[in-house]
Write a structure and sequence with these properties.
three-stranded antiparallel beta sheet
Length: 90
């Protein structure tokens, strides 16, 4: 898990986050981000967790694996108690 940026290091309009990178053979295939707090935009359309997998690595279960690892990281914390909903984006 990446290091947490201090609040002073977070650019205006952004929120502090932790990242997990999906890497295979030194090649980055995707990432999952855990946003430690939400701004108005993220509260409406983003949420605490975001992820991406590059097209050539999709349909291998990588996002599900990374999401499971991210959820394990926040289990028992305030983030682990946040509401859960899914929006399919293709």
């Amino acid at each position: 898990m990446g290091a947490r940026a201090g609040e002073a290091q977070v650019p205006e309009g952004m929120v502090p986050a932790l990242y997990r990178w999906i890497v295979e053979d030194d090649e980055v295939l995707g990432a999952v981000s855990l946003r430690l707090r939400l701004n108005d935009f993220l509260r409406e359309v983003g949420g605490h967790i975001g992820y991406c997998v590059r097209p050539s690595a999709r349909r291998r279960g990588l996002a599900a694996f990374a999401l499971g690892a991210a959820l394990a990281d926040v289990r028992g914390t305030e983030l682990g108690r946040s509401r859960r909903y899914w929006i399919a984006t293709g």
